[in-house]
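call fold(seq) -> tokens
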Amino acid sequence: DFIFEVTAGLTATHAADIVANVSQSVNIIPVTAAGGAGTITYALTGSLPDGLSFNAATGAVTGIAHDPSPL
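ret:
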């Protein structure tokens, strides 16, 4: 037997640019994805300011930044 499966394409949506202040609580999902096949995971290049964390399963950035990020 030969099985050929066609799945829906992956769609990624980028959120608008986000600015958060030091000592401000954030819960940001900068990119949302839907469709495709398999499990969607997210990756972060670089580092976040101290106090923020990244969730590879959801793409969320959460926490309270203690220092400004470098430009």
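The two ends are 56 Å apart (CA to CA).
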